[in-house]
Amino acid sequence: MKIFLKVIAAMSISLPVLASGNFNVLTYNVAGLPDLFSSGSPATNTAKISPLLNDYDIVVVQEDFSYHSDLLSQNNHPYKSSHSGDIAIGDGMNLFSRFAYTDFARIKWNDCYGVFDSGTDCLTPKGFHLSRHFLNGGAIVDVYNLHTDAGSDTNSLAARAKNTLQLLAFIEANSKGHAVIVAGDTNSRYTRATDKFHDFIAAGFKDVWVEKSRLGNYPQAGTEALMDCANKNSGNCERVDKILYRSSPAVNLVLNDAYVPAHFVDQNNAALSDHDPLAAYFSYAVNSNYALTAALGGPHGNFYNDLAELHAANYPALTSVALRSGARVDNISFTYSNGVTLSHGGSGGTQQSLSLSTSNYITQVIACQDKKDTTRIFYLDIKTSQNNRIYGGTYRGTCQTLAAPAGMAFIGAYGRAANELDKLGLIAKKR
User: Fold this and answer.
1) How far is CA 220 from the centre of its chain?
2) N or C: the chain end with fewer CB closer than 10 Å?
């Protein structure tokens, strides 16, 4: 009989010092179709683009199909998405980042129009991707890269509008409570009413071009297209490549600058792609009233974030916490003074609960992740300021002790869950 020994890694994790900082974002359609079919000259130009990307902290690209190795040839970003494949196989979208990220996912549009005409959008699985970035000082920002349906015929317009609404619905379901940046080739104009792009603004987003070049004055839908691009940064030059942003209760994003970089050209001053890049420069500040821990677990289940509901309800007091567990952790739930319970996971296992008060609050959680088909939360041990505790599951795998900073208490969680608790991070608030 073989004996397998499981090494348990146990460590204590303190939340990072709350901080502020700066970062920049670039979106660029690199025209990486096979050279014969591309509107650019990617066989020659993609390798020239590669080192220029290193000036930016987060880079999202579109049409990165046939020359991906050239695009990586001089790229020094430590975190990169895997290439999804050449044309007709991959979606052409990739990410290069100086910040670690998790929960990377590619989502295909539900609607497209045109295989060999009308933009040939159905020839490749276009869509969007999500990545959750961990900036310095405890800031979490969700970044979306998108490439919507092209074409200006009636069916393409309808498909693009559905793309926009699909992405917005996904963001509201999966990024609530987090700061968000949306960047990419939108193929959309605010002046085109059918594109539904004003819906982003209604959802609380700001467009970097509008904020910097038009002083926050958004073009009206149904008006004449803004195509005067003699000055590429003019308020009368609306490009389809866009960057939008939205803050969260925990992370405030401030736009410092946004423009089309002038150096993405060859030795003859000719553009390296048939699209111009767009860069945005942000500062951020972590709200000193809140702190989010890193999360344990795997990239499965549905996203949740209690911060959004708690912020909307003006942070009612946490009155109890409950845990359902058997061999693994099935569910964690939090009940508040307004009678609301926020529950994450399934209904299996045995339930334990712990009453809380202003003098008896959650200060520490030991969490373990391990794999059962997929990576999940196997064990939780919840402790309070009065040394009360509930615990359950199996202590195995990689374990961490998450401690609330001095003067703070854990009030809820974020992560992913389905029939069991797949991923868990904790939300702390100043007492």
Assistant:
1) 28
2) N
pTM of the full predicted structure? 0.93
211-251 tens-digit pLDDT: 999 999 999 999 999 999 999 999 999 999 999 999 999 99
Question: Using CA atoms, how far apart are residues 261 and 223, in angstroms rounded to an integer?
Answer: 28
Residues of the chain below pLDDT 50: 1-17
- C-alpha–C-alpha distance, residues 153 and 119, integer Å: 10
pLDDT given for residue 116 in this prediction: 65
234-257: string of b/e by CB count within 10 Å (b at 16+)? ebebbbbbbbbbbbbbbbebebee
Please say whether the beta carbons of 253 and 141 come within 8 A: yes
Give me the residue label for tokens 């945005």.
280
Q: Is 307 helix (H, G, I), strand (E, B) or coil?
A: helix
Q: Report the C-alpha gap between 7 and 4 in whole angstroms.
A: 10
Neighbouring C-beta atoms of residue 420, cutoff 10 Å: 27
Which pairing describes strands 341-345 and 329-336: parallel, antiparallel, or unpaired?
antiparallel
pLDDT at 101: 97
DSSP 157: H
Question: From the CB of residue 116, how many other CB atoms can be counted at a distance below 10 Å?
Answer: 7
The phi and psi torsions of 198 (rounded to 5 degrees) equal: -65, -15
Can you point out the beta strands (E) in 213-361? 241-246, 251-259, 278-286, 290-292, 296-297, 302-305, 318-325, 329-336, 341-345, 350-355
User: Strand 389-393 vs strand 421-430: parallel, antiparallel, or unpaired?
Assistant: unpaired
Sign of CA dihedral 306, 307, 309, 310: positive
End-to-end CA distance of the chain: 54
Four-CA torsion 122, 124, 125, 127, nearest 10 degrees: -80
Residue 413 has a pLDDT of: 98
CA-to-CA distance for 303 and 299, rounded, in angstroms? 9
Predicted local distance difference test score (pLDDT) of residue 323:
98
pLDDT at 9: 41
Q: Per DSSP, what are the bridge partners of residue 329?
A: 325
